[in-house]
Amino acid sequence: MSHPLASGVLVYCRSGFEGEAAQELDTVAAHAGVAGFARTERGAGFAEFVLVEPMPAEALLQAIGWPRLVFARQAVAVLDQLKGLPREDRLTPLLAELPTDFAVADAWVESPDTDDGKALTAFCRSFGNALVQALKRDARLVRDSPWRLHALFPHGDRCFLAVAHTALCAPWPLGIPRLKFPRNAPSRSTLKLDEAIQVLLTPGERERWFKSGMTAVDLGAAPGGWTWQLVRRALHVTAVDNGPMQEELMAGGHVTHLREDGFRYQPKRRVDWMVCDMVEQPRRVAERMGEWLAEGWCQRSIFNLKLPMKKRYTEVQQAFERIHALVHRRGGQVELRAKQLYHDREEITVFARVLAEK
Fold first, then answer.
1. Could you tell me which of 43, 191, 293, 326 has the fewest CB atoms within 10 Å of its CB?
2. What is the chain's mean pLDDT, rounded?
3. Do the Cβ atoms of 339 and 348 come closer than 8 Å?
4. How many helices (H) and strands (E) does the chain have?
């Protein structure tokens, strides 16, 4: 089977954050030594990094892939961009652009997560069925292939033809896990933590790091949306907030509510998890999170950073640098994984753990 050459990387992002996605693409590509430039259109729901010279798609996604990017819900390697597609037959020109002897395990037809993109949902569903049938007919659909075909339609006559390596890209259409709001959860913010656990952790990590009897602290917990997610995973939670917690959640016996300030509270002993969704400036939250990690008060943490209206990417980088500096000062190294999740808005969600200590 042939190895496809890519002309660039296409990332899906939240509408309104195209500039941050493009800025991040330029930065990550420069650090990886990949020559090219980012471009986008405000409100498009995606950004593109265009290569100076084509390169193997797998190598490209390893250098500028979804796991490395904060503002990307998905990152795929672009094979070609087709414009002016005839409405009477968009399938034939698309299939003609696939490399010879190239097979995929599946094919997804998508449109951006924007108002204009949502108008194409029915078309994408119908066209996706036709594309899969055509790939089966041509023996280009192979179950054990590591590749997945993506066709992103910003408009009905324009398509990005791209591929995703299943080990390097998000496993959900549009990069969005489909979650349902639990009716007995205290608030819709519960979906943020649920999505974070699905996106930022591997299946093995979820199994190892959420076990019955483990302990957690939820800073700024009220009314209990994030605490609810921890309790449903059988953790004992200390909920820190001056506000009230949901009575039903408290009745279960797995939560201790402390009416204290989350920026002042210190645990008496180390806990397995600390989570935090406090509304505060990202620098202040980063300082507090770095303190928890540097002092060894928790083994792992998931927290949100609320972003300003301007210089959002710069603010994220400064927050990360501050956390790294605080942990390094105490002789440790910290791993940070971050995403702007579907259930996030003007914020990103971060997973952190200390890798080495004194």
1. 43
2. 95
3. yes
4. 11, 14
CA distances from 161 to 29, 132, 152, 304, 345 (A): 21, 14, 7, 34, 28
Structure token pair of residue 232: 């449903």
Query: Is 245 in the same domain as 324?
Result: yes
Q: Strands 236-240 and 74-83: what pairing?
A: unpaired
Same domain for 171 and 194, yes or no, is no
Per DSSP (E only), the strands in 201-341 are 215-219, 236-240, 255-258, 271-276, 298-306, 333-339
Q: Is 221 annotated as a binding residue?
A: no
Active site residue 180: no
* pLDDT tens sequence across 233-253: 999 999 999 999 999 999 999
- Predicted confidence at residue 101, as pLDDT, reads 85
**pLDDT tier at 2 (50, 70, 90 boundaries)?**
low
- Catalytic entry in 306, 310, 311, 358: 306
Phi-psi region of 299 (alpha: psi -120 to 50; beta: other; left: phi over 0): alpha
344 is in an annotated binding site: no
Annotated binding residue 151: no
pLDDT in tens, 29-53: 999 999 999 999 999 999 999 999 9
Domain of 300, in residue numbers: 190-356
